[in-house]
Amino acid sequence: MEMLFIFLLIGCVTGVLAGLLGIGGGTIIVPIIIYTVTQQGMPYELTMKIALATSFSVIIFSTASSAYSHSKHKAILWNEFPYLSVGTIIGVFLGSYFVHKTSDIILQVIFCLFMGYTIYTLLFSKKNEADRIENVDDPVITKPWLSGGGVFIGFISSFIGIAGGAITVPLLSTWGFNTRKCIATSSMLGVVLATIGAISGIIYGWNKTEITDYYLGFIYLPAFVGIGITSVLFAPLGVKFSYKLPVKVIRQIFAVFLILVVSKMIHLIISSGSI
């Protein structure tokens, strides 16, 4: 019961972050799940795979709630979305295959390296990239580039258990789209990405977890229920903040959040004795 209460609280934070930053909250869910299942005696070689699958299952709800709220502001790039989503689906399937062939320690190192890169781009990007003019016309990006970008987003996200916001937002921003449109579109794309990632986690994890009473494949059900419920309720609150706070402030909040997460993740890796 105590653990379920903790998951409910985590869901509140996850929901706000999903709406505010266009992410699903995987960067906070993954370390929490790793710690939880490790304490339960789950074999180390399965912990990261459980964390990734569980993260994706929760992200379905947080990103869906966030995307619905963003759609009310007509901020989603619907013309570009179909090509991004097709590429993302391909990327997730490819990435999921490699994830389940890769050791947990390598997956965790990849997670930390990518978060470090994201922090750098958020804090040191050029000012004109951080402060796109709100009413500027959307750039024209060719279909192959959009689909290729989707493959990249899906593939990388598979290795770190996120909805792709940490990749999608910088990528679309680099192409010239308004930051808030990037966040909104990232939320919608996260629904597609997380759904495929969760399904892959169920398939690859079927009958592989030893504590079977609380698992569906690699999905840890208490976290799925607890975080999922409150993340849906709190995502609209994050969306409201995203339309009131300056873009620069949003990016700084995101960077500080990721610094805390990476620090915790590095601590978990070191304390495990794997390196």
From TrEMBL:
Domain of life: Bacteria
Organism per entry: Providencia stuartii
Official protein name in the record: Probable membrane transporter protein
Subcellular location: Cell membrane; Membrane
Coiled coil: none
Any one Gene Ontology cellular component term annotated for this protein: plasma membrane
Membrane disposition: Multi-pass membrane protein
Chain ranges passing through the membrane: 6-38, 50-69, 81-99, 106-125, 145-172, 184-206, 218-237, 249-270
Residues annotated as signal peptide: none
Family per record: Belongs to the 4-toluene sulfonate uptake permease (TSUP) (TC 2.A.102) family.
Record's keyword terms, sorted: Cell membrane, Membrane, Transmembrane, Transmembrane helix
